[in-house]
């Protein structure tokens, strides 16, 4: 079904504007134990709060997207979730788009509840977008996508992930001859039809996957590209993976920038270098 939306406040347009103004970079906020140790912070909610607030203060007024990984906050219970709420609120107030990395996926009333939690402005956990798993069927994500559209937000659907186990599922061939991943890509393309400059439904394609033979050209949505930096991929890998579609790529880095902390000037310098490197490749 063709969906036409040309209003300037839908997520695709907001993301394109942020990238044009701030550069093509998404920085993860991943307070995992190794980084807390490196920053000489405690492995508890207090350490996570100091870590996350430092990243937000250093980067939220200058990078296009910040991507808190929810699991690293959830592990500390209600205090960790309270920190995540503040991270989302403060990052958005400083002008960054917030992509909640939660990888949710379910059916019926449960996925509707996820939509309300992460995409409805009435919730303190609402960001600008979230990551979602389509492996109960892309159609099962309909409540997420409907809620995102209603509020000018976005959804990034897993398609070709950077982990080595991914191809066993994502490259499996269905009865119609398409891989599972290609089916996801094609269904996302149909959801984004008619949007300019691209639609609110993005896909996650790892920068480490190489030339897989999948057709990315019709997605008409943003590509979130993890796997850069510490996971082994570099800016030049984006050419091999995305080809002519690379103009819609949002490179995602975490440790590559975060290990420069806790010094805020060093964090800013690391993020600026990364954005410049990606801008050259993606132009």
TrEMBL record:
Entry-linked InterPro entries: Aldolase_TIM, OMPdecase_AS, OMPdecase_type-2, OMPdeCOase_dom, RibuloseP-bd_barrel
UniProt pathway annotation: Pyrimidine metabolism; UMP biosynthesis via de novo pathway; UMP from orotate: step 2/2
Keyword Protease: no
EC number(s) from the headed UniProt entry: 4.1.1.23
Record keywords: Decarboxylase, Lyase, Pyrimidine biosynthesis
Domain called Orotidine 5'-phosphate decarboxylase: residue spans: 24-270
Catalytic activity, reaction form: orotidine 5'-phosphate + H(+) = UMP + CO2
Active site: 103 (proton donor)
Any Pfam family the entry gives: OMPdecase
Family: Belongs to the OMP decarboxylase family. Type 2 subfamily.
HAMAP family recorded: OMPdecase_type2 (MF_01215)
Protein name in the entry: Orotidine 5'-phosphate decarboxylase
Phylogenetic placement of the source organism: Bacteria, Bacillati, Actinomycetota, Actinomycetes, Cryptosporangiales
């Amino acid at each position: 079904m063709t969906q036409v939306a040309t209003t300037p406040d839908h997520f695709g347009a907001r993301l394109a504007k942020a990238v044009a103004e701030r550069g093509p970079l998404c920085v993860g906020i991943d307070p995992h134990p190794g980084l807390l140790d490196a920053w000489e912070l405690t492995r508890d909610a207090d350490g996570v709060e100091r870590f996350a607030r430092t990243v937000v203060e250093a980067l939220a007024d200058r990078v296009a997207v910040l991507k808190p990984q929810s699991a690293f906050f959830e592990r500390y219970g209600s205090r960790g979730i309270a920190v995540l709420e503040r991270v989302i609120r403060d990052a958005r107030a400083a002008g960054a788009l917030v992509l909640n990395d939660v990888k949710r996926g379910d059916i019926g009333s449960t996925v509707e509840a996820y939509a309300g939690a992460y995409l409805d402005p009435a919730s303190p956990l609402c960001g600008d977008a979230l990551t979602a798993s389509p492996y109960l069927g892309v159609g099962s994500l309909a409540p997420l996508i409907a809620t995102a559209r209603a509020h000018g937000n976005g959804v990034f659907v897993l398609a070709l992930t950077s982990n080595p186990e991914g191809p066993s599922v994502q490259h499996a061939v269905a009865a119609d001859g398409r891989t599972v991943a290609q089916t996801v890509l094609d269904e996302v393309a149909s959801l984004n039809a008619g949007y300019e400059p691209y639609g609110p439904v993005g896909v996650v394609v790892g920068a480490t996957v190489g030339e897989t033979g999948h057709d990315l050209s019709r997605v008409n949505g943003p590509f979130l590209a993890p796997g850069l930096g510490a996971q082994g991929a570099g800016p030049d890998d984006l050419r091999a993976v995305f080809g002519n579609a690379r103009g819609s790529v949002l490179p995602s880095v975490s440790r590559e920038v975060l290990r420069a902390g806790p010094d805020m000037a060093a964090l800013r310098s690391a993020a600026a270098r990364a954005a410049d490197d990606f801008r050259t490749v993606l132009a």
